[in-house]
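User: Can you model how alpha-L-arabinofuranose sits in this protein?
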Amino acid sequence: MLVGKHIRKYLGLFAVSALALGLSACGSDEGGTAGEGAGDAGELIKVGFVAVGPEGAWRQANETNIQETLTKEAGFDLKYAPATNLDQKSQIDAFTSFVDEGVDAILLSATEGSGWEDSLKRAQEAEIPVILIDRGIEPNNTELYVTRIAPDNIAVSTSVAEWAKSEFPDGGKYFVLEGPAGVSVVNERNQGWDAVIGAETTFEKIGAQTANWSTEEAKSVFETVLKSNNNDVQIVFAQNDEMGLGAAQAVEEAGLKPGVDVKIATIDGTKNALQALADGKLSFVAEYNPLFGDVAADVVKKAVAGETVDSYIIANSLTFDSPEAAKEALPNRKF
Ligand code: AHR
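Assistant: Here's the modeled complex, given as structure tokens:
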């Protein structure tokens, strides 16, 4: 199920199964394979997880799922290294420590898209396979890592844009609440949205601003946007749930009705967002599936065994476009 194509439900798009990357490239010159001996019967696979750490509900779900899947019982010795206050230098330091320790594989969820070349080259020289979790790197040099496991941000944000087009056939004024500058998924989400909405002359972008994935910050940003536009904003594209919930609070505090006066679409699909969709405060939620720990476990085993792995493995995701869809899904949601 894992390696190869994933047909995503709803979005109906196939995983980009880029050139399969022969892991023997990571093997030693003598033709050995990366992490030789690792994963042999009884021996745990040592994995360093350079993680983001506390950031919001999505991150909590993703990193918990990985830690609960790559357990000793499953054959792994996982060392979790969350960033200090989302600081990339703390991640690079942890990455370097894992390379020096000689782990068998490294998982990397990058707080910043750029600035990873030196670290990735060090891992390559040490023949340690690196697997990107969620976040990509920029420039995207697929020679420097084994694979990236993530939902497809462009497809996910395209689904939001297609919803906006269908919801507003005559167009409207919109504002984008972005994640932090320099994070790969932010650029990808803008790319998917802009490819659809940017082509529509009936839609007017009144602005975009980061609210750093935060509900409080998004509320403050959108309060200002409403005031400076005399409340004449029809759509908010919030690049994660927490920011969308903040925008909904700002709409209510302006004496307007979210879901009526201003329609808010978000990405992630957390329980709080689906509850807000059920309550009519959000209008569209595109899931960005965080639960791919099983995928990561399988890829690590294949990587250390020197097996071929696709360079981009997409975690399938759903979309929710009505209170009824949210109410139906809520009882079974895992994050
Ligand atoms: O990289 C994924 C993004 O990071 C999620 O959409 C957001 O909630 C998280 O903080």
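A couple of observations from the model: The longest strand covers residues 203-210. The domain at 4-150+289-314 is CATH 3.40.50.2300 (Rossmann fold).
User: Helpful, thanks.
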